[in-house]
């Protein structure tokens, strides 16, 4: 993977690019963790995403990848519907164009919102601003802020 591709996407595949679901647990761990560690040394930083070699996986592979500190994984399978969708939504100023890891972080932040028992307010403990809709009105919940809802 070229340096600029890694820097943009922060993803990796595996050391030798095998069909991971055909390997035993130890070899999956060696493939995934070995490549993750090597790339983190080469490029610095923390790799949080990966692409499944050949786009194939099973639940065993997903569990092991998660244990290696990988936040999200994706396939490489092409899909014409996705290409059509991307063309349809491109160059719009009301659409958030985000990387996979940005979407992951945002969803994780949404899940971290805290409400009291009466749901009268909400606290956002994350480092991201969160936007929600209340009675058809878009409301910003600032990072580490509490807002009244009622």
Keywords:
150 residues, alpha/beta, TIM Barrel, 2 domains, three-stranded parallel sheet, disordered N terminus
Low-confidence stretches: 1-6
Return the average pLDDT rounded to an integer: 86
- Molecular shape: globular
Helical/strand content category: alpha/beta
Distance between the termini: 50 Å
CATH class of the largest domain: Alpha Beta
Strand content: 15-25%
The H/E string reads HEHEHEHHEEEE
The CATH level-2 architecture of the largest domain is identified as: Alpha-Beta Barrel
Record field, number of beta strands: 7
Tell me about the biggest sheet?
Answer: 3 strands, parallel
What does this structure look like?
With 150 residues, this protein is α/β, with parallel strands linked by helices. The chain folds into two domains: 3-77, TIM Barrel (Alpha-Beta Barrel), CATH 3.20.20.370; 81-148, no CATH class. The chain contains five helices and seven strands; from the N terminus they run αβαβαβααββββ. It has helices spanning 3-9, 25-43, 59-67, 80-89, 100-111, and strands at 11-12, 49-51, 72-74, 121-123, 130-134, 137-141, 146-148. It has a three-stranded parallel sheet with strand order 1-2-3, sandwiched between helices. The protein is globular and about 55 Å long. The model is unreliable at 1-6 (pLDDT under 50).
Layout of helices and strands, plus pairs?
Elements: H1 3-9, E1 11-12, H2 25-43, E2 49-51, H3 59-67, E3 72-74, H4 80-89, H5 100-111, E4 121-123, E5 130-134, E6 137-141, E7 146-148
Parallel strand pairs: 1-2, 2-3
Antiparallel strand pairs: 4-7, 5-6
């Amino acid at each position: 993977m070229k340096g600029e591709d890694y820097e943009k996407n922060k993803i990796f595949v595996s050391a030798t690019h095998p069909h991971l679901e055909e390997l035993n647990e130890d070899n999956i761990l060696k493939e995934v963790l070995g490549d993750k560690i090597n790339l983190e040394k080469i490029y610095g930083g923390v790799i949080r995403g990966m692409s499944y070699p050949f786009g194939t996986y099973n639940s065993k592979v997903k569990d092991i990848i998660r244990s290696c500190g990988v936040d999200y994984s994706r396939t490489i399978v092409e899909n014409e519907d996705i290409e059509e969708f991307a063309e349809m939504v491109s160059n719009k100023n009301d659409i958030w164009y985000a990387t996979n890891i940005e979407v992951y972080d945002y969803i994780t932040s949404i899940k971290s919102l805290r409400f009291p028992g009466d749901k009268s307010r909400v606290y956002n403990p994350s480092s991201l601003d969160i936007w929600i809709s209340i009675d058809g009105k878009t409301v910003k919940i600032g990072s580490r802020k509490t807002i009244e809802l009622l």
